[in-house]
Amino acid sequence: MDWLEEELRRIRNLNLFRKRKLREGLRDFCSNDYLALRDHPEVKEETIKVVKDYGLGSGASALVSGYTIHHKSLEEKLASFKEVPSCLLFGSGYLANIGTIPALASEGDLILSDQLNHASIIDACRLSKAKIFVFPHLDYHHAWELLKENRKYYRRCLIVSDSVFSMDGDVAHLPTLLKLAQEYDCLLFLDEAHATGILGQRGKGIFEEFNLRWQENVILMGTLSKAIGSYGAFVCGSKRLIDYLVNKARSFIFSTSLPPAVCAGAKKALEIIEREPWRVKKIKDVAENIYKELSKIGLFVKFYHTPILPIMLYSEEKALRLSEALFERGIFLQAIRYPTVPKGEARLRLTASVRYTEEDLEYLYTALKESFNIIKEREEGSKQSTF
Length: 387
Known about the structure:
Blueprint: H1 2-13, E1 27-28, H2 41-54, H3 69-82, E2 86-90, H4 93-104, E3 110-114, H5 119-128, E4 131-135, H6 140-150, E5 157-162, H7 174-183, E6 187-191, H8 206-209, E7 218-223, E8 233-237, H9 239-248, H10 250-253, H11 260-275, H12 278-297, E9 308-314, H13 316-328, E10 331-332, E11 335-336, E12 346-351, H14 358-385
Parallel strand pairs: 1-10, 3-4, 3-5, 5-6, 6-7
Antiparallel strand pairs: 2-8, 7-8, 9-12, 11-12
Helix pairs in contact: 2-11, 3-11, 4-5, 12-14, 13-14
């Protein structure tokens, strides 16, 4: 087993070593709990009530005995929220992607995938055994050229894209994707993990953002673990698509279903999003204000009017140093490095949340400014010592 230690040493030397850190006692600025619903009093109360009635787990897969009124009710709520006919729950976003994509495309089929799609999409495409073309990020002209040249040679075609890209926070252009899918007879698979609860005036996702209506050739996948503040995932689409996935998606068929209490908590969170649209507006305002304040400090932050605000450091070592300096000040803000992002694109992935107070944000800005300046001074001193 010496090779394990050698590989770990190599990872450390590249500043790519990862380890888990307890978040207790820290100010968390990198959570995906954008709308502050994971510990909302009503969500907790509903979850506890169902735990008392149903216990901790579901007991089996949905096709055995793990399908309850709470699963059915959440699926119906999600379908209504997304304004589509039907919905199917999965254990996680990863399970939803690796179950759905290989069920829709296989040998003899074609997949077009955006270069910056989530890792679970990349793995799902590989598992499908379909022919995969990866087009440069948001380069739809390149995707069009690939379809024009290759579509005729394949039985089915699936275009796959995140709606909101998880590391940069930018947004796919839905009208163009719909046009491509229509022109070349493709299914369009959209990962709405970071779009649900965020895009559109009511947080319904990318279709609301672009003021468009869902079409039958579109599959909407999403997670319950971001703005909804729960755990698990879902796939929404036509009734026959959901019937098909119930019979073909292996990660659904062979996984224990979500705990009923988790479903109940997620449904309550959706009800709160619908009842309190101010949360969707506020998260946009919070994100924009954070962007403005960080720009004043002199940090380069990518911003596309979503809650994801990557502070670009580029150097893996610098990202680690800044993250650790903030950790010592009681701030939880993780360094994101290769392979999550390309080499030389290291960053701190700051996220906005409606739970932040003015005091929280002022503390963050002060700590970031002081820590960043210390690192810059050390770098300059190191350069001078080499001459």
